[in-house]
Amino acid sequence: MKQPPARRKAALSLLAAVSVWLIGPAAAAPAAPAQKITQQDVKTALAGIVQGPDLFSKTLRSADISGMHLSFDLIRRFKPEGRGLVHDRVTEIYEIVDGSGVLVSGGLLLHTSPIPPRPDTLTIGPSRESPDLQGGVRWPVAGGDVVIIPAGTPHEFASINGHITYRVTRIDPGH
User: Fold this and answer.
1) Are β-strands 55-65 and 68-77 bridged in parallel, bridged antiparallel, or unpaired?
2) The CATH number of domain 39-172 is 2.60.120.10
3) Per-residue pLDDT reduced to its tens digit, 131-161
4) In this structure, are residues 62 and 171 in contact, taking their beta carbons and an 8 Å threshold?
């Protein structure tokens, strides 16, 4: 006797789900290993910072994971940027380690020019810059603060009190 189409479809769906459940883990490709940055990695990078004219930047780890490009950088700025930036695809997460300043985010970045790819800009993806950031929110930031800057959001450090050191996690889903 033939089953009604709805019952047959349900039975086939259940059989497919059970098959995936039983076979799936054994047939799955191995997962990528975790990425680790040790405390010593960070200490070594911090020890390498010298008083520069503007900033010190070091990529501690960069990897393609789950179809995205991720990077973890350590930056120390000694001067305000003097120009706003906007990253077309990259979301940034700033974790302020020490120092303080004022970060402006949002608003309008007018009269932009593309940032050409260079060894020190590879982790920021396609981006634009301009000295003309208008509006936005001024955020006082200091050690312990975390700021999330979504892709497409103009931002810049408008002022720095001596220096500011921060870790940047960059997430590029379009890589």
Assistant:
1) antiparallel
2) yes
3) 999 999 999 999 999 999 999 999 999 999 9
4) no
